[in-house]
Design goal:
Blueprint: E1 5-22, E2 27-28, E3 36-37, E4 46-49, H1 51-55, E5 58-59, E6 72-75, E7 81-85, H2 91-100, E8 105-113, E9 121-126, E10 132-136, H3 144-147, E11 152-165, E12 177-184, E13 209-214, E14 217-224, E15 227-231, H4 243-251, H5 257-267, E16 271-274, E17 282-289, E18 292-298, E19 303-308, E20 313-315, E21 321-323, H6 334-337, H7 369-387, H8 391-400, H9 406-416, H10 427-445, H11 458-466, E22 474-495, E23 498-518, E24 523-544, E25 548-552, E26 556-561, E27 564-585, H12 589-594, H13 601-606, E28 608-635, E29 640-668, E30 678-703, E31 723-728, E32 735-739, H14 740-751, H15 760-772, E33 776-782, E34 790-794, E35 799-802, H16 810-813, H17 819-824, H18 828-846, E36 848-850, E37 853-865, H19 867-889, H20 895-913, E38 917-936, E39 943-964, E40 971-978
Helix pairs in contact: 7-8, 15-20, 19-20
Length: 980
């Protein structure tokens, strides 16, 4: 039976700015007064968090909701919910705010229903499945039995919605509608939590006992006299791997009945846990957070929150338990762990947390960023393994901090030889590959999904990922293996400063991904994609130095050079890709995965699709490039120097003189299983022009002599390195000589009428006109352009009619109006733009690329033809279809008439289309976040290896709809739904 979910339309009420310092004792009886006072900063109206706020604090990143997962929640003195919002800081800005700006500040909001009574709670915690649980506060305080009753609710934050109706001036102060869902939480009595309520709203006679699980062991932890006590563990735990054996020894392998009874008695006895805290620290409250224990600790001058993982409890002697490590980071749900872990910053943006200097961002450190991140991640893992007494694993992680890439080499060899990741030829092969890849994906997910070690099955893991997933969102489990090699030799010199080199660049890569998404029918879409990419390029390069400045030392030199390089080369590329896809009902996902992804013959044939694509290309290219390079060169031996690193920024102009592309596509649709129709396309092009602006960083060994130095590399070596900008300039010049698909379509068209020679090119020209002018068009923008809203897009894709804030006159709102009122009073368009700007700031501040984690947000503006343009488009389509039907059916008309008719039609349609324009229909605010385990070798010139495995999460963060009047000309309303 499903519990009823009660959605409550609420609003967020700002109640002030809080600082992170500890609440001070109140001063009484000042100047013969009995009032209680607390000092405040009246300028900023800053408050301090009370002990009650600290005791009931929960970080929402520990819950399984993606909305507000970078904020905290606690309880007010009356039991209502309070949201805590802060700003994350990197090392430099964090130190500045901490020491020069008076510390970190936090905005606090009260959650109140727009109608009816507010639901109030005694306490909050997070259950093992990631649900935020609240224990409802009784309204009848005089009834002690009612007061001690536990009435539990799941609390879920759904979305923040708001309408800006431009025609209704009475709504100029409309509030956000914050949708909160409450669902009754039913749990067995023996699993209920008795939370500590020191300094809480209601003093209950609670035993302060928590129930948690340690890999199958049911434990209870209690707080007494500033000490933690536990029962349910084996008497001896030497390492985390020995818990199961200890449990077997305690409960099963007992020969003497009297000894067994004593063991059972000990199991029911509480034993003290030694915790790594100072004797002066006071534990104020404990609560369960995702199967860990949150400790609120008073450290005298401040309050800190720590987290105790039961896996870090050991006992070297009988029942003498001790904790090897208290963590300062909360356990995180999937949504926070994948790219949105604010606790990897110097300051997390939340109170009661500890600033860590080691959490600086390395993304702006040239060249060494990946090495620094790799070392930090390995050291963090080593600390975890040490706390778990897994010394062998700890030693391995320490060794990884100085690994230059040998581990990546071994992993790459294994991955490249794995046949299950190769593209598949038919559905039988694709299914077997999908089964093996799902097993590997389950291992990756087990690192980021809570509960796997406590019995959660692979099917339950997948279900927990997709249950709350929204349309347009997806989760991808990715595994990439790659190797690149570059070889070069000097041939001859044209001049003292101009040398000619011969070179070869080779690359081999394999990628397999599993993408999970949901459709409008609440079905889960599985896509298993296997890719293979092989590239070989070779040719000649000639280059000479332009301006060069060198500063010499004994064995060290610094140089700045602006060389000019030209290259000509041949390239051969082979790409192959398969995509095996099917849909499963949400309620069937668990059984489907846990039973091995079994398909009957008919299910495989009729319920799945397979797309197999093979692409072979050959090209002759030439380029010219100039760059500004800066390097520090160390003399090694035999006139060999090492640039550490070579750091260059340059401009390339590339001309693909000739390009031949051969594509073979096989699509196994529903109803096809082992045979499918092949579609072959041969494409022959001349003179495709490209422009690249690049950045290059690497260790660079170069042979030098006293008479000349060459500090340049051919362009092809730059391929697959970081590009700051890449843009195809096909409009500059591009000649399509031959396309087999067009020839097949022409042949099919002319076969219907033998006398329609030379007609197809005119039909194709009109079809291209429709293809270029679609009924809808999407524009992707950086999140920094979110508040740059253009309501109109012309047919040439130029944006017009930008929304701008309207000026508001002072006499319209009174001379004493403050600035906030002046910004948007009486003008919802102004408020809409200001709200967009605030949303932009929030997402921009969360962007990161640090410690193998990445988060980036962007926006997609969707434009559709306005009402008049839609009529033009439909009439044009009808006119074209009528002419084609007339041509195909009427055998009496001549070719000259047909040519003239189609030419005139093309001119008319082109003229009509030039009058069309698009209206902004919606904006999707999206984010891409990822967490990847990367093994990279140092990027030497000769060989570079790469191995990446992890999760990529595409998430919809918000939706904005634009509504127009009946004539579809004037904007009437903007409707927003935010999920952050």
């Amino acid at each position: 039976m499903t519990n009823e979910i009660k959605p409550v339309i609420s609003k967020l009420i700002p109640i002030g700015i809080y600082d992170g310092s500890k609440e001070r004792h109140r001063v009484k009886k000042v100047k013969n007064s009995n009032n209680t006072y607390i000092k405040k900063n009246e300028k900023h109206k800053e408050h301090k968090f009370s002990l009650n706020n600290a005791n009931n604090y929960v970080y929402l990143g520990s819950t399984n909701t993606s909305l507000l997962n970078n904020m905290g929640i606690t309880l007010a003195d009356d039991g209502s919910l309070l949201l805590i919002k802060g700003k994350t800081h990197d090392l430099i800005t964090g130190l500045y705010h901490k020491h020069f700006k008076g510390g970190f500040k936090y905005n606090v909001f009260n959650i109140e229903p727009q109608q009816g009574d507010n639901m109030k709670f005694k306490e909050l915690y997070v259950d093992p499945n990631g649900f935020l649980i609240g224990n409802k506060r009784s309204e009848n305080k005089s009834d002690s039995a009612e007061e001690n009753k536990n009435e539990l609710y799941k609390i879920k934050f759904n979305k923040i919605e708001k309408d800006y109706n431009l025609n209704d001036s009475s709504l100029n102060s409309i509030e956000n509608s914050f949708i909160v869902e409450y669902e009754k939480y039913i749990i067995d009595d023996e699993l209920k939590q008795d939370l500590s309520s020191i300094n809480n709203i209601v003093e209950l006679k609670e035993s302060n006992v928590l129930k948690i699980n340690r890999e199958g062991l049911d434990l209870s932890v209690s707080l007494k006299d500033n000490m933690l006590y536990i029962k349910g563990l084996p008497k001896e735990i030497i390492s985390s791997d020995q818990v199961d054996s200890g449990k077997i020894e305690e409960y099963n392998v007992v020969e003497n009945k009297e000894v067994e009874n004593k063991e059972v008695e000990h199991k029911e006895v509480e034993h003290k846990i030694k915790i790594p805290l100072k004797s002066t620290d006071k534990i104020l409250a404990i609560k369960p957070i995702l199967n860990q224990i949150q400790l609120v600790v008073d450290k005298g001058n401040k309050i800190k929150i720590y987290y105790l993982d039961p896996l870090n409890i050991f006992s070297l002697k009988d029942y003498q338990y001790e904790v090897t490590r208290l963590k300062q980071e909360p356990p995180l749900s999937f949504y926070s762990m994948v790219g949105e872990n604010n606790y990897n910053n110097y300051h997390s943006g939340q109170p009661f947390s500890t600033q860590k200097i080691g959490n600086f961002s390395s993304r702006h450190i040239p060249f060494f960023a990946s090495l620094i991140d790799k070392a930090r991640i390995s050291l963090d893992k080593a600390k975890q393994q040490y706390a778990l007494k897994k010394y062998k694993s700890m030693t391995s992680n320490i060794a990884k901090t100085v690994d230059p890439g040998f581990r990546g080499l071994v992993s790459n060899i294994k991955g490249i030889s794995n046949s299950s990741t190769l593209p598949c030829e038919n559905k039988f092969e694709a299914l077997q590959s999908a089964k093996k890849n799902m097993q590997e994906a389950s291992k990756v997910l087990s690192k980021y999904i809570k509960g796997v070690k406590n019995g959660k099955t692979p099917g339950e893991v997948i279900y927990s990922l997709v249950k709350e997933m929204k349309e347009k969102s997806s989760v991808t489990i990715a595994d990439t293996k790659g190797i690149r090699a570059f070889f070069s030799t000097s041939l001859f010199s044209l001049h003292a400063n101009i040398g000619v080199n011969a070179f070869i660049l080779a690359r081999y890569a394999k990628t397999h991904t599993i993408t999970l998404s949901k459709n409008e029918k609440n079905e889960v879409i599985f896509s298993f994609i296997n890719e293979k990419d092989v590239n070989l390029s070779g040719g000649l390069s000639a280059g000479g130095n332009g301006y060069e400045k060198v500063w010499m030392g004994d064995n060290v030199s610094c140089n700045v050079a602006t060389p000019l390089i030209a290259s000509a080369y041949l390239s051969l590329n082979y790409e192959r890709k398969s995509n095996f896809s099917f849909k499963i009902g949400l309620d069937d996902v668990v059984d489907f995965i846990d039973k091995g992804m079994e398909f009957t013959y008919d299910q495989l044939k009729y319920n799945t699709t397979l797309n197999n694509d093979k692409n072979i290309s050959f090209g002759i290219s030439a380029d010219i490039r100039s760059e500004l390079s800066l390097g520090v060169n160390l003399s090694l031996y035999n006139k060999i120097q090492m640039s550490i690193p070579r750091n260059a920024v340059g401009l390339n102009v590339i001309a693909n003189l000739l390009k031949v592309n051969f594509n073979v596509n096989k699509f196994f649709d529903y109803g096809e299983i082992s045979e499918a129709k092949k579609k072959k396309v041969i494409d022959f092009k001349l003179l495709e022009i490209l422009l690249d602006i690049y950045r290059d960083l690497k260790f660079y060994p170069s042979k030098t002599s006293s008479s000349s130095e060459r500090r340049w590399l051919p362009l092809t070596e730059m391929k697959n390195f970081e590009f700051m900008l890449q843009k195809k300039l096909n409009s500059l010049f591009s000649l399509n000589v031959f396309n087999s698909q067009e020839l097949e379509e022409k042949k099919e068209f002319e076969n219907n009428r033998k006398n329609l020679k030379e007609i197809y090119k005119r039909v194709r020209k009109i079809n291209n006109l429709f293809d270029e002018n679609t009924i809808a068009y999407n524009v992707s923008k950086n999140i920094s352009k979110l508040d740059s809203v253009h309501l109109t897009m012309l047919i040439n894709k130029k944006l017009k009619n930008r929304m701008k804030k309207d000026p508001v006159l002072l006499d319209e709102i009174g001379g004493g109006a403050d600035f906030e009122k002046l910004k948007w009073k009486g003008n919802l368009k102004n408020q809409f733009l200001l709200d967009l700007k605030e949303r932009k700031k929030i997402l921009s501040s969360q962007e990161k690329n640090n410690k193998n984690e990445r988060f980036k947000s962007y926006s997609v503006f969707q434009y559709k033809l306005d009402k008049k343009s839609d009529i033009i488009y439909k009439k044009a389509k009808e006119m074209f279809n009528e002419k084609i039907n007339e041509i195909m059916k009427n055998e009496n008309i001549t070719n000259d008439y047909i040519k003239s008719t189609l030419s005139n039609l093309y001119d008319k349609l082109k003229d009509d289309f030039s009058k069309m324009k698009y209206q902004l229909s919606s904006i999707d605010i999206m984010s891409i976040s990822e967490v990847l385990d990367k093994d990279k070798s140092i990027p030497l010139v000769l060989v570079q290896l790469e191995n990446a495995k992890g999760i990529i999460y595409h998430q919809i963060k918000g939706e904005i709809k634009f509504s127009y009047d009946e004539d579809k000309e004037q904007l009437e309303k903007m409707s927003t739904n935010y999920y952050f």
